[in-house]
Design brief:
The chain is an alpha/beta fold. It is 40% helix and 20% strand. It has eight helices and eleven strands. Strand 8 (148-151) and strand 9 (154-155) form a beta hairpin. Helix 2 (35-44) runs parallel beside helix 3 (61-69).
Length: 230
């Protein structure tokens, strides 16, 4: 995948780190430390995506995003230390396509960049539109037709049961699914009280995804209710 990517961050170490990871994937990277430099780069280069820090010395990244959106439609990912829901809503409302907080996993950032570029390419008509057999978000890609699943471009070796559980949670993203519903849908059997089968499989899924049990990023436990993926 070839693309021109703008990285705007007033901390050179972070800009350089992001640049190294993106360049290793074959992307051309332009780095800027201020909003003024970024706007000049946007106008001078043919860009495919921008990663913008919110806290810039001369202009808020939110304002910069709004300025970019006046003329350009390429994807924008906000990169910031702020993680409140209001900051996220502000960024998405102003025109950002995604939002990731510091400290971040560089592999996750690369995965999100790739995901946004894939969507941008599809929406511009150069690829076939996605089908209902593929779910792609936040670095997780699960393909029901091929029974393949990758996380941050790393393949996950899932059993059929684990795959079906993950697919069901992803397909109902944002909704809480009870252990009873998961068991009866995936196993096709009547759920009995004190059945910990689902809990065990969820634990194995989290282990394979490298998720911490206390604060998982993907599969969340809603105590007394069930599980969900946001």
């Amino acid at each position: 995948m070839e693309a021109n990517i703008l990285v705007v961050d007033d901390e050179p170490e972070i800009a350089d780190l992001v640049g190294v990871y993106l360049k290793s994937e074959g992307f051309t990277v332009f780095t800027c430390g201020t909003a003024v430099e970024a706007l000049a780069c946007v106008r001078a280069q043919s860009l495919d995506l921008a990663v913008l820090d919110v806290m810039l010395p001369d202009m808020s990244g939110f304002v910069l995003c709004g300025e970019i959106r006046k003329e350009y439609h390429f994807p924008v990912i906000m990169l910031t230390a702020k993680g409140s829901d209001m900051d996220k809503i502000t960024g998405l409302t102003i025109g950002a396509d995604d939002y990731i907080t510091k400290p971040f996993n560089p592999l996750e950032l690369v995965a999100r960049v790739k995901a946004q570029l894939r969507r941008y390419t599809r929406y511009n008509g150069t690829e076939k539109p996605p089908t209902g057999d593929v779910i792609d978000f936040n670095g997780l890609v699960i393909n029901r037709s091929t029974h393949e699943c990758t996380l941050y471009d790393q393949e996950l070796n899932l059993t059929p049961i684990e795959f079906d559980i993950l697919w069901m949670l992803c397909e109902n993203r944002g909704q809480v699914i009870s252990a009873e519903r998961l068991f009866e849908t995936v196993w096709g059997e009547k759920y009995l009280d004190r059945n910990n089968t689902v809990m065990v499989h969820i634990r194995r899924l989290r282990e394979k995804m490298g998720e911490p049990s206390r604060d998982p990023r993907f599969i969340k436990t809603v105590w007394g209710v069930g599980y969900k993926i946001d």
